[in-house]
Amino acid sequence: MRIPVLVDILEANNLIAQEIRERLEKEGILSLNLMASPGAGKTSLIERTVEALGEEIRIGVIEGDLATSLDAERIAKYGVPVVQLNTGTICHLEARMIKSAFESLPQIDLLFIENVGNLICPTGFDLGEDAKVVIVSLPEGDDKPFKYPSIFRESKAVVINKIDLQPYLKAQVGTLREAALSINLALDVFEISCETREGLSGWYDWVRAQFAAKGEGKTVG
Ligand code: MG
Ligand code: ZN
Q1: Using an 8 Å Cβ cutoff, are 208 and 59 in contact?
Q2: pLDDT at 29
Q3: Which of 46, 105, 148, 221 satisfies CB 3.0 to 4.6 Å to 60 for a cystine?
Q4: Ligand number nearest to the C-alpha of 87
């Protein structure tokens, strides 16, 4: 017996993702799909990055949330173009949503897609992005990579946020890093705090390098 529903949804998604990818390619836009649990610091990381790189790279943001435009309002304060997607009951972003949001953005160099806060199904939906980035905050525990391996397997980089809270937590930054690398040895790992701004310069350099590589038509490992 054939049960085609899920396969068809994913196939349809992949076709649209391919269209997005071709368009981003043609326009030389780097796109990063940020994924994390709710409250890990996706929006904060975008805020810090816009602050640091907004003068040198034209950044645009697509914000995904079930409800509200609170995160888009935070980003808009930095003067960068932002579109809020409200997904209602859908707990991840799909390519069709990105396609329509992308239409309303002006010419940019770098597109941040902030996925819905969820470590599970955002991994399964190709958005046409150049790379997926998983953000995990230290208070969530240093065993997250073992519990949600696919998101770490699919990502190019992991950003460990809230390391300034280390003195108050049992979870260890080093343990979290090792756990992530044990799932995916190719991950670029950043240990940062969006609050104190420690460790962020390495992240900014990584974003710059991805953008430069996009211009040269290759990806940086
Ligand atoms: Mg957010
Ligand atoms: Zn979902």
Answers
A1: no
A2: 97
A3: 105
A4: 2
Give distance in angstroms: CA of 220 to centre of ligand 2: 29
74: exposed, middle or buried (C-beta count within 10 Å: 0-12, 13-18, 19+)? middle
Helices (H) and strands (E) counted in the chain, each on its own, are 8, 7
13 closest CA partner among 101, 123, 102, 96: 96
pLDDT, one tens digit per residue, over 154-185 is 999 999 999 999 999 999 999 999 999 999 99
Strands (E), 21-138: 30-36, 59-65, 82-86, 110-114, 131-137
* Ligand 2 ion local residues (Cβ < 5 A): 91-92, 121
Low-confidence ranges of the chain (pLDDT < 70): 3-6, 217-221
Query: What residue ranges do the domains of the chain occupy?
Result: 6-214
Q: Out of 3.40.50.2000, 3.40.109.10, 3.40.50.300, 3.40.980.10, which CATH number does the structure's domain 6-214 have?
A: 3.40.50.300
Instruction: Report pLDDT for 216.
Output: 80
pLDDT digits (tens, 9 = 90+) for 47-78: 999 999 999 999 999 999 999 999 999 999 99
C-alpha angle 6-12-15 in degrees, rounded to nearest 5: 140
Ligand 2: distance of its center to the CA of 177 in Å?
Answer: 26
Q: How far is the CA of 104 from the centre of ligand 1 (A)?
A: 20
| Å from CA of 217 to ligand 1 middle | 30
